[in-house]
Amino acid sequence: MYDLIVIGGGPAGLAAACAAWEGGLRSILIVERDKELGGILNQCIHNGFGLHHFKEELTGPEYAGRFVKLLGETGVEVRLDTMVLDVTERRQVHMVGKSTGYRVEEARSIVLAMGCRERTRGAIAIPGSRPAGVFTAGAAQRYVNMEGWMPGKRVVILGSGDIGLIMARRMTLEGAKVLACVEVMPYSGGLNRNIVQCLHDYDIPLYLSHTVTDIRGKDRVEQVVVSEVDVNRNPVPGRSMIFDCDTLLLSVGLIPENELTRQAGIEIDRRTNGAVVYENMETSLPGVFACGNVCHVHDLVDFVTAESQRAGAAAARYVLNGPDGLAAPDGRCLEVRNGDGVTYTVPQHIRTGRVEKLCELFFRVNRVCKDSEILVASGEEQIARFRREHLAPGEMEHITLPRALLDKAPGNITVSIREVSK
Asked: Please, what's the b/e burial string for 292-316 (b: 16 or more CB within 10 A of its CB; e: otherwise)?
């Protein structure tokens, strides 16, 4: 039996395993379905990673390499090219690998770090014919950066998520002509720095409140029709453009990989599509933790790392100190709710007795706000307020609440946004 099994060898799994080792666990297994550690970072050859955690700018492979090196200094066992098939409520992990065959391993604790996947054309039901040349942005990124294949020469990108924005620049640098980036919402879904560095710097137009309404082509994409949409996201008659292209890249959102989570009977939050977690990233199943993009989709890998280190350290404490149930020592467990302007909050529950000094709350807003206040209320009482000059759905926000403040909270907590008029 292992002290800890980490499912996923990407940035979340690596950080969690290293933190658990530092926390005193000596029997740790990482299970990764790919042939090498690093996860999605291996295909993200652009820079911009590590500014928060390492205090320097790194590429994705460089960031992953730092943690792979740290892992190499531990005794953590790694199984590559191995797929986890099931996680049971008794913390049994069913897996199959090329070198090991079918195995069932037991663990005293588990960290779920499976990451996320992209939404496909089928998920958003774009009408039209079904020719070759339609890719998710992440698939195109892997083809270009790892396999050495160019998806096409004349490209339209649907969606303004960060991967789509980065691929607009990458395809341009590889000699393709990116005709447009099209976004159905009236605001971009990516970081502002990526809009500037990947679109503005390369004169790539961004059409907000537009979407692809038809894909044309027999064997290969020949044209896409882009239409303006109204406030209800319905196409406006007579407001369409036709782009002659051979490739359509989709950057229309990410979905946490939670099939294993559901099979284990763990409670899922419909807002995040990830597990409901407590302040230490423990799920509703004692001894099982979730972190990174499998819990909620992050913008920055640095935040994934910090969250995953918290999960790994908590798993170590769970094993070494013994399970003490889901209730906090003082019995208090606060529910964290999203109020006006907020889409979701993580964690969803805070056991105040288990917060040492500070508790971080992560959330996303559902609209673009300029000069605003983040309001934290408990019942009818406002217990904290934070000022922000700019808030956007494409950028995850976080605040820190002191333990003393949580101890005084009369009831459950609600996080909301209020715009401040100047």
From this structure: bbbbbbbbbbbbbbbbbbbbbbbbb
Q: Which of 382, 376, 378 has its CA nearest to residue 417? A: 376
The rounded distance, in Å, linking the Cα atoms of 184 and 234 is 10
Q: What is the pLDDT of residues 108-150, one digit of tens each?
A: 999 999 999 999 998 888 999 999 999 999 999 999 999 999 9
pLDDT reported for residue 180: 97
- Among 195, 221, 252, residue at a domain's last position: 252
Give yes or no: residues 152 and 101 share one domain: no
If one counts the domains in the chain, the total is: 3
Spans of the chain, pLDDT less than 70: 323-330, 421-422
Is-contact 8 32, C-beta < 8 A?
yes
State the greatest distance between any 2 C-alpha atoms of the chain, in Å, as a whole number: 66
pLDDT of residue 170: 97
Q: Do 203 and 308 share a domain, yes or no?
A: no
Same domain, 6 and 23: yes
Indicate the residue among 302, 326, 350 that finishes a domain.
326
Residues 75 and 187 in one domain: no
Give me the residue label for tokens 């658990």.
Answer: 20
- Rounded Cα gap, residues 135 and 129, in angstroms: 14
List the one residue out of 158, 2, 185 whose CA is nearest residue 78.
2
Distance from first CA to last CA of the chain, Å, rounded? 61
Q: Give the model's pLDDT for residue 349.
A: 96
Least Cα distance to 414 among 380, 363, 378, 389 occurs for: 378
Same domain, 195 and 160: yes
- Residue 333 in contact with residue 351, Cβ under 8 Å? yes
Query: Is residue 135 located within the same domain as residue 283?
Result: no
Distance CA 309, CA 311 (A): 5
**Residue that has been written with the tokens 């933190």 in this structure:** 19
Per-residue pLDDT reduced to its tens digit, 238-251? 999 999 999 999 99
What would the DSSP string read from start to end of 200-232? GGGT--EEETEEEEEEE-SSB--EEEEEEE-TT
Q: Do residues 101 and 167 both lie within one domain?
A: no
What domain range is 237 assigned to? 120-252
| Res 220: pLDDT | 96
